[in-house]
Sequence to fold (338 residues):
Amino acid sequence: MLRLRWKQVLDDRAREDQPQEFSSPVAAGGRIYAGTRDGSLYAFDARSGKVEWHRKTGSVSTRPGYATGRLYVGTAEGNLIALAASDGEELWRYESKSAILRTPVIAGDTIYFSNDADVVYALDRVKGDFLWQYKAEQSDEFTLRGHAGVSVTEDHVLSGFSNGTVVALRTGTGSVAWITSLTAGQEQFVDVDSQPIVDGDSVYVVSTAGGVYALDLSTGLVRWRLPVEGAGGIASDGERLYFAAANEGVFAADRGGNVLWRQGTAGGGEPVDPVVTGDYVIYTLSADGVFVADKRTGRLHQFFDPGTGVSGLPLVDGDNLYVLSNGGILYALAIERF
Fold:
């Protein structure tokens, strides 16, 4: 079901003990773009894997954003950099002063992103000019590595924070439309580090301590809660929700919060946000690699183990799957669907 098409070594880390790469590739215009923790961004021909260009950007631990011939790359040094996708020429950069570990979102002429200091920014997409920012009150307790991404609707920018809250900000001004706490009475590790998923008039989001929540998009009121400790990112196919927790495994639930199936992942390492494609749900584990399961039943079809595991999001582009292993190797795999 998964067949190797090509592979490229981006950052040979074979001699490291338990290396990790959190970056994820993006596909656009017949190319695959991928960054690495060592600070390089590469452009590959999607068919052959040939390197078209590469640039030094600073450490990359997320998927670049793409729109109208431009790449938008967040770095661990806190810079958001706009590059020409054709040759990697730098067009502008904005210094946010804290690590950007989630993909920026482009909506019209505005680009929105968050960083590890619990700040959400809005910039002019073309020039990189500052429009507004919102900073959440940071928690005084222990927090986890990483931060939530942003989701953008016509009226709102939604994000979560290390203090256990989810906030809806007005797109034009950054003013608060509503704020909801998802701590479930806990005091430590209450981080909301997932990207909220908007589906109709509901927002689905995950709190590390509180579990999976459904919120009303207009008011932020909690509709239901599914208490799964340690859950990470969430995905939706419009009918079901899919999420993973390190100690519990991968779950599918209906839109009412009822669990439909669970696939155990004991000992496989930290899971990454699931990706839904066709009849499959694809998830990666930091120790064991890539898994392809039936989205209706959770039955495992196949897995791919690069030997070092995968800590970044997988990319599905048509019938192709791209993953960057913890060993610094980018794999292009053909998905042979049943």
Q: What stands out?
A: The chain has a mean pLDDT of 92. Residues 151 and 158 are 5 Å apart (CA to CA). Residues 1-22+237-338 form a domain with the Methylamine Dehydrogenase; Chain H fold (CATH 2.130.10.10).
